[in-house]
Design a protein that fits this description.
Layout: H1 2-8, H2 19-22, E1 23-32, E2 61-74, E3 79-82, E4 85-86, H3 96-100, E5 109-111, E6 119-121, H4 130-146, E7 153-157, H5 162-170, E8 179-181, E9 186-195, H6 208-219, E10 229-233, H7 246-255, E11 259-261, H8 268-276, E12 278-284, E13 300-306, H9 313-321, E14 325-330, H10 349-359
Parallel strand pairs: 5-9, 6-7, 6-9, 7-8, 10-11, 10-12, 12-13, 13-14
Antiparallel strand pairs: 1-2, 2-3, 2-9, 3-4
Helix pairs in contact: 4-5, 4-6
C-alpha cells in the first residue's frame, strides 16, 4: 500500500518540481548548439524578393532520457504526476488550468507491472498527428535503441494507425508488444522511461539524434528511381489553413511537371520512398511537410507561410535534414495568430510561380 499512498498524496513544495529533481537516473543524449538558418541564396532572390525567417536561429538544448519512479501518467493530457502533483515540464501545449486541476483519480488508475524490461512513454497527446509522431516519437524510439532499451514496453495508443505501426516496425519495435492506453485512464508506474523529445523540448533545436533516427529509416528503403522529383504537397480537403484556390495552384504546378501528392494517401514506406527522390518540396504548414525529414541533403524546401501564423517548425525539420529553405509569405486577411484559420484571400499564383522560377536555379542535380 505504500506505493499507492505515494501516488495519491500531495506533498507540499516551494515551487515547480523538474524532471531532473524526481528522476532516479538521467542520461544526457545530446547537447546541441544554436544554428543559424540556411536560406536559398541567403534569403534574397534576383528581383529583391526575400524569404521569411531572415536571421532565424535555432535554440540550444540539452536533451535527456529520464528514469522516473513512483509516478502516474494521465493519458488524456499525457502529463505525469509525482506525489499527487503534475510535473509541469511534461505538460506539452496544455491548458494551464487543466494541468493545475489534475489529480490522481483512483477510479481511473491502471497499475503497470514493473518488469525487468522498463515501460517507456514515446508519444504526446497528439499522437495521431503525423508531424508530432515524426518529431517526438521517432527520436524517442531511436534514443531508446541507442541506450540499450530496444525491448522497452512502449505505452501506445489503443488504436494505431497503419503508418504508426509501420514506423514502429521500421524503428525496430513491435507494436504488439506495447501496452495499449486509453483516454480517460491514468497509469501508475514504479519505473518508466521518458525522453525530452516527447514533450517537444527539441522542437526548435537542430538535433543530430533526430536526424539519425530519420536517416536510419530512410536508409532501409531501397531506391525506387532517380532523384528527379519536384513535389507539391496538397492540403486537399483539410480545413485548417485552407487556401481557397489551391486547386488552381496544383494545376499550374502539374503543368510544370510537378508530382502533386496528398501524403495521407500513401503508406509510411511509400512516403519515405517518394521524398527520398525529391529535388524540391513545396507546400504549407501541415503534417505532409514533415516528410522533409526523408529528403536528401540539398533538397530545397519552398514553404508557403500564412501571414497570420508564421511557425518555423517545418523550417526546423528541414534544417535537421540539411535542406536550404525558402519561405514565401502569403497574405491571408486574418488579423490574429491562429494555427487553424483558413485564408480569406486567394493565393497570388503568378507571384508564387515567379519566385519558383528563380528558386529552381538552386536545385541539386538529377
Amino acid at each position: 500500500m505504500g506505493f499507492f499512498r505515494k501516488l495519491f498524496r500531495r506533498t507540499p513544495t516551494t515551487g515547480p518540481v523538474s524532471l531532473k529533481d524526481v528522476a532516479s537516473s538521467v542520461t544526457v543524449l545530446e547537447t546541441v548548439p544554436a544554428v543559424p538558418v540556411s536560406l536559398v541564396n541567403g534569403g534574397v532572390l534576383g528581383a529583391g524578393e526575400t524569404s521569411v525567417f531572415q536571421g532565424w536561429v535555432s535554440e540550444p538544448a540539452t536533451l535527456c532520457l529520464y528514469e522516473l519512479r513512483d509516478v502516474v501518467l494521465d493519458r488524456s493530457l499525457m502529463v505525469f504526476l509525482k506525489d499527487g502533483k503534475p510535473l509541469l515540464e511534461t505538460a506539452y501545449v496544455q491548458d494551464p488550468a487543466a494541468v493545475a486541476a489534475l489529480t490522481v483519480r483512483p477510479e481511473d488508475l491502471v497499475t503497470i507491472p514493473d518488469h525487468a524490461t522498463p515501460a517507456a512513454v514515446c508519444c504526446d497527446h497528439w499522437n495521431s498527428n503525423y508531424y508530432h509522431w515524426l518529431s517526438h516519437t521517432l527520436p524517442t524510439l531511436h534514443a531508446l535503441r541507442i541506450t540499450g532499451h530496444q525491448d522497452a514496453r512502449l505505452m501506445l495508443p489503443a488504436s494505431m494507425r497503419p503508418w504508426q505501426a509501420d514506423t514502429l516496425a521500421l524503428s525496430g519495435f513491435d507494436a504488439q508488444k506495447g501496452i495499449p492506453t486509453e483516454h480517460g485512464k491514468q497509469y501508475a508506474f514504479r519505473r518508466v522511461l521518458y525522453a525530452d523529445y516527447v514533450r517537444g523540448a527539441a522542437d526548435f533545436s537542430v538535433s543530430p539524434l533526430s536526424r539519425a533516427a530519420y536517416e536510419s529509416l530512410a536508409a532501409a528503403q531501397p531506391p525506387t528511381g532517380p532523384r528527379d522529383l519536384r513535389i507539391f504537397i496538397e492540403r486537399g480537403p483539410a480545413s485548417n489553413r485552407r487556401i481557397p484556390n489551391e486547386a488552381e495552384l496544383t494545376a499550374a504546378l502539374q503543368a510544370r511537371g510537378f508530382l502533386c501528392v496528398r501524403a495521407e494517401n500513401h503508406s509510411a514506406t511509400e512516403q519515405i520512398q517518394i521524398f527520398k527522390r525529391a529535388r524540391l518540396i513545396m507546400g504549407q504548414l501541415g503534417s505532409g511537410m514533415a516528410n522533409c525529414v526523408w529528403c536528401q541533403p540539398g533538397t530545397v524546401m519552398f514553404e508557403l507561410v500564412a501571414e497570420h501564423h508564421q511557425n518555423p517548425c517545418n523550417l526546423l525539420m528541414g534544417m535537421q535534414a540539411g535542406l536550404p529553405y525558402w519561405g514565401k509569405l502569403m497574405p491571408t486577411g486574418q488579423q490574429d495568430d491562429d494555427h487553424i484559420a483558413q485564408s480569406e484571400k486567394p493565393l497570388d499564383i503568378a507571384s508564387v510561380l515567379h519566385e519558383l522560377d528563380q528558386i529552381e536555379q538552386y536545385l541539386p542535380p538529377v
